[in-house]
Design goal:
This protein has about 90 residues and is mainly alpha-helical. The chain has a domain of about 45 residues. Helices cover about 50% and strands about 10% of the residues. It starts with 7 loop residues before the first helix and ends with a helix.
């Protein structure tokens, strides 16, 4: 599932395409933020930059934390040095 917002005209075009049943094929290009219909019509969509990054890189909350592991470790060492009583 791709969490995007489309206006009503875009939704109507996609619903019309979907009415073709098995012949309806949509191509979703997240990187370029485009949906291509069976007829080759391109519909552009907007998506949050951070969400797009997560989806393109297959990141969940744990992966996002691990991405920042070096910064977290560095911060913890700094706190340990600056405030050894903590």
């Amino acid at each position: 599932m791709l969490p995007i917002v489309l206006d009503s005209d875009q939704v109507n075009l996609l619903m019309e395409d979907a009415s073709r049943g098995a012949n309806a094929k949509l191509k979703i290009n997240l990187e370029d933020q485009e949906i291509t219909t069976s007829d080759g019509l391109i519909i552009n969509f907007k998506i949050d930059k951070f969400l797009k990054h997560c989806l393109l890189n297959g990141l969940d909350d744990i992966d996002l934390t691990l991405e920042k592991a070096k910064k977290i470790d560095s911060y913890e060492k700094k706190i340990e040095n600056d405030r050894p009583w903590v």
